[in-house]
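Thanks for the sequence, V.! I ran TIGR03885 family FMN-dependent LLM class oxidoreductase right away. Repeating your input here for the record:
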Amino acid sequence: MTRFGFHASHEQIAPGALLRHVRRAQEVGFAAAMCSDHFAPFGTVQGQSGHAWPWLGSALAVTEFPIGVVTAPGQRYHPAIVAQAAATLTEMFPDRFWMAVGSGQALNEHITGERWPPKPERNARLRESVEIIRELFDGGCVTHRGRVTVDRAMLYTRPAKPPPIIGAAVSAETARWVGGWADGLITINQPVDQLRPVIEAFRDGGGKGKPVRLQVHLSWARDEETALRLAYEQWRPAILGSGIGWDLAMPEDFEQATAYVRPDDLRTHVLVAADPARHAQWLREYADLGVDEIFLHHVGRDQEEFLDVFGTEVLPELKRQLS
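Predicted structure:
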């Protein structure tokens, strides 16, 4: 049966508050959590960007369910450092930590001052990074000179069982590629007829039998007008997609690129509704695609009321329908 998790958005909410939210998510019935890993927010109105990795240690310590992160080894993070951080968390919290890896966004990676590579090169760098991380998890002493350089790196603290490495993909093309090397897939919500081919491509590319995770951006409020306003103010950059959004470097760039977006344009990217039953219906449609875990990202900043309402009205209904 599909599990439902809470997404902690570091771009929007300070880490101390997010720690309270993830603990509350467990209390109201969510079965897992995940978080983003940004250096900068998508826009100045979001206004936050805490470091994901120290937060993960705290979040795992104050909860009992699994928690994952979407990160990008290769530029801002050296893969050996990612491997060390992941191994440490997994040693402390066995079978509870997972990480998803992607090729990154200029928004976060440009800070090193290195050239921002085109997508095929970023994918090749990601694949190298994953191989390095896995070799380190296996106890190897790694020297590598390619798109990433490693000199005699070795992990002296390793968990009994390494964490899974999930591949992040939005398009069917990338999902098919991910299926050949990742331990699972994580993607984002799209209309069902567009999301289905992404999942099928992952399975056809070698991902059959591997778990599929889905991050769903949604906006809920007591009235529809407020829910739509929150989506527009907080998550307007979602409309850009990967083709443009991956190459913008500054929060202000996202604001300029979406200056002429209309609020209703967001409805295909963010599930906007005041009725909890409508959200339950949408989530059921995603679950019916065979998704193993769905992580709910309420794009508004009032996470407490969202958690209480969805814990009371949405999660029980979904459990009833899917049981």
